[in-house]
Amino acid sequence: xxxxxxxxxxxxxxxxxxxxxxxxxxxxxxxxxxxxxxxxxxxxxxxxxxxxxxxxxxxxxxxxxxxxxxxxxxxxxxxxxxxxxxxxxxxxxxxxxxxxxxxxxxxxxxxxxxxxxxxxxxxxxxxxxxxxxxxxxxxxxxxxxxxxxxxxxxxxxxxxxxxxxxxxxxxxxxxxxxxxxxxxxxxxxxxxxxxxxxxxxxxxxxxxxxxxxxxxxxxxxxxxxxxxxxxxxxxxxxxxxxxxxxxxxxxxxxxxxxxxxxxxxxxxxxxxxxxxxxxxxxxxxxxxxxxxxxxxxxxxxxxxxxxxxxxxxxxxxxxxxxxxxx
Length: 326
Fold this sequence. Notes:
Oligomer: single chain
Strand content: 15-25%
Order of helices and strands: HEEHHEHHEEEHEHEEEHEEEHHE
Structural class: alpha+beta
Strand order of the largest sheet: 2-1-3
């Protein structure tokens, strides 16, 4: 049952008296390194105004203001398959809502007067009504109705860790186990730790391959300052992995690169890959899709298909968090 306005005011006032706000360190974007300090769990430590949301288009730099409901609809439309289970869509809605609040509390100068961008590599994607119609065609009304119903049921729920909104990142599909944030971005978040996501391995898109000619491979690695010789079969040296199997570092020629750098350089679906030289080509065999941190959307949908609800899904992927009503 929703709290009355008076009760909200009462508890927020009480929280401000008993738990003064602590200063938080600004970060460049939602994926920046960060550390959380142990603190006593409270109802809500920080609050932000979300009656409207100002979204910056990274392509045009234009800022559009809209209602929270319209924003969440555009984000969910962009970020998740509308045919997914309703419990998955609810989990995505709550994660996206929380991520918005996290970004608003960690704003940087690049955002100017906006609250968040529509860039999925920085924050989360967003589709306008026109883009939704173009994407879904004749299914537009059906999908909007389904997503809107889910949003209405959970729009007041957010994810907290020690009373603060979490950096509730998500990805399409893990390699079978999600990643520790520190292994991907360097910063440690207690709630972004590796957990099993077995449903991901059942996806027909779980494994992908990318073949690169010797010339294209050489051209790309040279942009990283790597020197090569005339023996491409000897270019690949040592490879180290995280506990989950993601490539941590790879030595090519005379230089060591991060697995995440290689993923970007060769536009791989994830940083979990093997690399071999055969038939005069370099062949990547890749598992999963995305950075691998936080909630796996495919894994979440598998859980939902097995009867788990959005609360169970979220508490599986984000360690020791609370789901609170605001």
